[in-house]
């Protein structure tokens, strides 16, 4: 119905434009006839006087003819004013028609996606769409994985971690913490046989991809960053199968079940690298350029990056588009850092030559989903914050991960109050 309305408006505009153009052309002819040298040409006014003289010679009374010529002149002036006004209207209408044509494709596509149109409600009651619908699950993408997920997932949600033999010891601390909390829905994607065996022998749900998938060569030998690129490719299948994934690095300790602490209202819900309200949730960072004088302060928006090692991603079209965009860029730009790419794709707006992603995002509570900077710089030194029980602690800010992971377990699980003390705020 809305499309019909748009078309009618367009054709109505079209016919008005035609009428306006005809009037304009006719007026132009009249004026061209009366003022062959233009309205504001000094020579033309001489010409006018000559006509006046001719009139004077032919007309019966000089008085009458000068009256008439005055009337004629004022009529012409008003007509030419009308003419320019019409021209302006034609210009406006043409512009609007062009804009309507440009917007039509996009608007129609959106209409098809969103379905029914709504009137806006009263002030303060409107809310934009934030929670996108999930995709229709497609088991044919990977029937073997579909079977595993059916068994492992709870409410179509699960924790997923990638691991190869390089991170075996951390992986053990990782799944021990998950088992201790009693989280059933988690899965290790084994990138080599040894890790697959290791998981099986520890009763850890494990999935190893078919060796024919070319991208897996990266997983077996690759360093941290190469594995990160692979992770976005593999995650896509989970979403296509209709599952929400809580993607987890293995340098993480679980202290509560994270699925009791998610909002599930966004495409991506991520832990932050921020360390306080401002850096985690965003702030106005004023940039000072004194040479600009009165305008020396430029306001900028800043937010510490999302941590691409721990985020919850729902199976929606924007989520899958995000994974594709990140994987594509990581494949093409070999020296790029996956976390930087992940954030750029999530946050950079559309601009000339670039269509930004339209994904809904949410920053997790930085005390509940705690990074190791928050823990070692702030929390452990604050009597009140020390009593917090986070959902997870991610040892992302420190290179001596295994030791600090074990210390985190000692501190939060075994209540050893001085377990964190031997470690400096940062790395040595
Ligand atoms: C940070 O934000 C929370 C929630 O909005 C608020 O309760 C708290 O007081 C803030 N902390 C500081 C230091 O501003």
From TrEMBL:
It is a single-pass type II membrane protein. It is found in: Golgi apparatus membrane. It holds the Pfam family Nucleotid_trans. InterPro entries: Nucl-diP-sugar_transferase, Nucleotide-diphossugar_trans, RRA1/2/3. GO terms for cellular component: Golgi membrane. Keywords: Cell wall biogenesis/degradation, Coiled coil, Glycosyltransferase, Golgi apparatus, Membrane, Signal-anchor, Transferase, Transmembrane, Transmembrane helix. Residues 69-110 form a coiled coil. It is an enzyme of class 2 (transferase). Residues 183-405 form the Nucleotide-diphospho-sugar transferase domain. One of its GO terms (molecular function) is glycosyltransferase activity. Its main location: Golgi. The chain crosses the membrane at residues 17-40. Its EC number is 2.4.2.-. GO terms for biological process: cell wall organization; root hair cell development. Belongs to the glycosyltransferase 77 family. This is Glycosyltransferase. The gene is LOC107938919.
């Amino acid at each position: 119905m809305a499309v019909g309305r748009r078309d009618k408006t367009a054709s109505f505009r079209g016919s008005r434009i035609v009428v306006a153009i005809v009037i304009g052309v006719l007026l132009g002819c009249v004026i061209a006839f009366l003022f062959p040298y233009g309205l504001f040409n000094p020579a033309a006014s001489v010409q006018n006087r000559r006509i006046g003289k001719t009139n004077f010679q032919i007309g019966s009374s000089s008085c009458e003819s000068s009256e008439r010529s005055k009337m004629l002149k004022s009529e012409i002036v008003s007509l030419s004013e009308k003419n320019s006004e019409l021209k302006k209207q034609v210009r406006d209408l043409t512009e609007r028609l062009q804009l309507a044509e440009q917007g039509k494709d996009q608007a129609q596509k959106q209409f098809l996606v969103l379905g029914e149109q709504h009137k806006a409600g009263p002030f303060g009651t409107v809310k934009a769409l934030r929670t996108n619908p999930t995709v229709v699950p497609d088991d044919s993408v990977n029937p073997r994985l579909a079977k595993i997920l059916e068994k492992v997932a709870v409410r179509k949600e699960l924790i997923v971690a990638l691991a190869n033999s390089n991170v075996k010891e951390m992986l053990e601390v990782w799944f021990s913490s998950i088992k201790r909390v009693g989280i059933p829905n988690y899965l290790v994607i084994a990138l080599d046989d040894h890790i697959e065996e290791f998981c099986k022998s520890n009763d850890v749900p494990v999935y190893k991809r078919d060796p024919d998938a070319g991208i897996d060569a990266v997983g077996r030998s690759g360093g941290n960053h190469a594995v990160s690129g692979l992770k976005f490719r593999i995650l896509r299948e989970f979403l296509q199968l209709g599952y929400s994934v809580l993607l987890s690095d293995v340098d993480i300790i679980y202290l509560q079940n994270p699925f009791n602490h998610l909002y599930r209202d966004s495409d991506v819900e991520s832990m932050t690298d921020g360390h306080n309200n401002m850096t985690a949730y965003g702030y106005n960072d004023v940039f000072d350029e004194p040479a600009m004088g009165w305008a020396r302060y430029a306001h900028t928006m800043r937010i510490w990056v999302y941590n691409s090692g721990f985020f919850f991603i729902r199976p929606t079209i924007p989520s899958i588009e995000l994974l594709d965009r990140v994987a594509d860029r990581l494949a093409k730009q070999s020296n790029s850092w996956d976390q930087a790419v992940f954030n750029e794709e999530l946050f950079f707006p559309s601009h000339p030559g670039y269509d930004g992603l339209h994904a809904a995002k949410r920053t997790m509570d930085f005390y509940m989903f705690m990074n190791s900077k928050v823990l070692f710089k702030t929390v452990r030194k604050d009597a009140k914050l020390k009593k917090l029980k986070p959902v997870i602690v991610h040892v992302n800010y420190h290179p001596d991960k295994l030791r600090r992971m074990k210390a985190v377990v000692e501190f939060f699980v075994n209540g050893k109050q001085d377990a964190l003390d031997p470690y400096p705020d940062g790395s040595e």
